[in-house]
Fold this protein.
Amino acid sequence: MPPPAAASAKATAKASASATPEAAGGGAGKVWVNSKSNTYHCPGSKFYGKTKAGEYMTEAEAKTKGAHADHGKACS
């Protein structure tokens, strides 16, 4: 069982992601690339368009720039 502080941090991160509005500009064929972690998120996922720093691009562009899929799960 994680320490209370770790559990609290996870709960805060989950609440923050769901409360954050999605950044404008996404849509069909676009993934959200988190600039800080170089991870891309698929449409409909919890962090799609919701991290503090990032940009939309195609999955192919994300892979070309060295980004990796969130939890190793590609969108297409």
About this structure: The CA atoms of residues 22 and 49 lie 5 Å apart. The mean pLDDT is 85. Residues 4-72 form one domain. The first helix runs from residue 4 to 19.
